Amino acid sequence: MSFKNLSKTFRYVNENGDSITFEYAYGFLINKPSGIDTVQVKLSQAQGINQVGSTVESKTVQSRPVTISGIIVGLDQDVRKEKLMSVVRPDLTGKFYADDYYLNVHVTATPTIEPRKKFAHFQFSIDAPYPYWQKDNSVSQALSGIQNHFKFPWNISRSYRFGEWMATQFMNIRNDGQLPVPFTATFYAKNEVENPKITHASTGETLILNKSMVAGERVVVEITHDRTYVTSSEDGNIRGALDLDSTLFRLGVGDNVLKPEADSGLNQLEVEINFATEIVGVTL
């Protein structure tokens, strides 16, 4: 097997923050990790009497297994072998990065390392229960509130507008990834606001809070792949304030035209949306 520098930088970071960067300069050289580009889809199929072929009743995207194989280069081979064993541990979860996209992973096979003094081969395996790659840095956009203008370089001798109040009827939140994604909505009340909500103009989906917000209160609705958290700066956990009729839990691929609303106090409401794009696979 030949090893060479790849077009993306791969890195493993365990939950304690210990990391290994798989580049020549750091003493590790790998080939393309297996499984980074493809996902397996399991189909549930049925076939009727005399039916040609089958009917797909459901499909399930499987978890993503990834195997990393490479060699240890340079001096301090023993130190780097020890680092592999101490960072890629079975008792710790981790993140496997390809540039600024990552998978949340579990170790399924700890490193096996050749007993050589030079160019020792190594290999270990991980599995991502959620199989899609998520971008490390999120996108943030205000639906209403203060829109920041300040940026460097700043000419101190000239007047400058640091921000301006923005009240919008509709705002387009664009998801440039390949998949619908969860998001975090932050509601901030400058004064009293009654029952704030967000409506998706195209789909009619809504995110509704049955909540009387007081001046200075901030409510964060954090939607993840597993569950939804609703937290108030005044009342703590208020998951029960999320209306049962709420349906807006993902931002679709492409344009998402959203509208902030409230039963009263809309002009006192600031709303911000944060999300991270996702892709199906990584190519080199």
Describe the protein in words.
The chain contains one helix and 23 strands. The protein has two domains: 10-131, Elongation Factor Tu (Ef-tu), domain 3, CATH 2.40.30.200; 139-279, Jelly Rolls (Sandwich), CATH 2.60.120. A hairpin with a 2-residue loop joins β7 and β8 (101-113). The chain has one helix at 77-87; strands at residues 10-14, 19-21, 28-30, 41-46, 55-61, 64-72, 94-98, 101-113, 121-128, 133-135, 139-148, 163-167, 171-175, 184-189, 193-200, 206-208, 212-213, 218-223, 228-232, 236-237, 254-264, 269-275, 278-279. The longest helix has 11 residues, at 77-87. Residues 145-150 and 160-165 have low confidence and may be disordered. Strands 1, 2, 3, 6, 7, 8, 9, 10 and 23 form a nine-stranded antiparallel β-sheet that branches. Strands 12-11-22-14-18-19-20 form a seven-stranded antiparallel β-sheet, with no helix packed on it. Strands 13, 15, 16, 17 and 21 form a five-stranded antiparallel β-sheet that branches. It is globular, with a radius of gyration of 24 Å. The chain is mainly beta and 284 residues long.
